[in-house]
Amino acid sequence: MTHRTFPVATTPPPQAPREAEPLRAHVPAAAEEVVQEIRRLVPEYAAPPGGRFDRAMRWAVVQSVEHFVEVLAGAPPDGAALTGLYAGIGAYEARRGRSLDGLQTAIRVGGQVACRRFIDETRRLDWSLETLGQITEALFEFLEQVAGAASRGYAEATQRLATERERLRWRLRDLLIADPPASRGAIAELARPAGWSLPRTIAAVAVRPPAGRPVPVLPPAILADWDRDDPYLLVPDPDGPGQEGFLATLLGGCRAAIGPTVPPDGGALSLRWARRTLALTGRDGPARRDVIRCLDNVPAVAASMSRELLALAVGERLRPLDELPPHRRVLFARTLLEYMKCHDNAVDAAERLMVHDQTVRYRIRRLRRLLGDGMNDPLRRTELMLLLHAAVEFGLIEEDAAETAAAAPHARPEPHPVERGTA
Fold this sequence. Notes:
Elements lengths: L15 H5 L6 H15 L10 H21 L7 H16 L5 H25 L3 H48 L7 H8 L10 E7 L14 E3 L6 E5 L6 H9 L3 E4 L8 H14 L10 E3 L4 H7 L2 H11 L11 H13 L4 H8 L3 H15 L6 H16 L7 H7 L9 H4 L3
Parallel strand pairs: 4-5
Antiparallel strand pairs: 1-3, 1-4, 2-3
Helix pairs in contact: 2-3, 2-5, 4-6, 5-6, 10-15, 11-15, 12-13, 12-14, 12-15, 13-14
């Protein structure tokens, strides 16, 4: 860090060398009074006497008082050392995570003590009011410049700390999704200097931002990587109240999938499943919302990982559906899936499908004739539901588009519920 060098109290007032000479003997007493006033009026500087901070503060006050008196007495006004001193103090405050309020108050307190002592010296040494005014003006210039040096040191350190903290956050983010996972101790050790409170759990969020839209601004607790082709976030304690709605609002229309909630060393697992879930959205996936949860769509996500096997099984197990007109196959498969989800309740299934319950009963009777005892076999029921889910969600039932279009205008409509009776 390079600090601009400038003189402090550059121009001694007229007669100052002669008038300032008696002040040299009072430097120790003046410095002590300043220290005591700072300890009394600035709580964060009221360190135990004799400690490291107390010694450093006393040394800085003595250096400041001596410098001002020497310049006032006609010494060459080289303020580089004092400028560096106060820039260093400002940087120290930044590293401690404190504002500059305490330091600026301490500088003002020092000025107030000096003014009181100058007034006393005016009476004792019979200074003129003009001399007092000139010395006071020089003091104000001195205080302004040391305060400016402290502000610059603080600003430079803050910027440097922010850049370093950002680098640490990037390292932490990468460590959280490492595979094989990093130890929890290593994660905790890096989280502290990165300024990230280590949560009990995390979840990865795979994101697909709309093209051309700027990335959203995120709170500091969320770690993000927007520079990848497949960007992601790491969200602490994702199961807290309102977190899902908060993320949906925060991401502002981005397609996103939330992976499983895991301990801090399980980020790679959560991200892997978040990405697999996101890969389903916008094409043939289970979700119609912008932000979906992996664990709310386990059947679809799991089925997507075995699509080749499921396609073969659908072709084998659901082959009887080929007897239906092409434009009815998916419709009947969806009806059977909802019917089984509703524990074979036609009324509930009809509500989910938004059709008449007699329509559901008609379709189920026809499916029983096609599939036979497989619909009622407890050992086959789970398999049948899985295959139906895959067939419906992933389009594994073949439909010839041309044949469907040709058949649709001439297809025999399903009988009205009154004509069919009840199953």
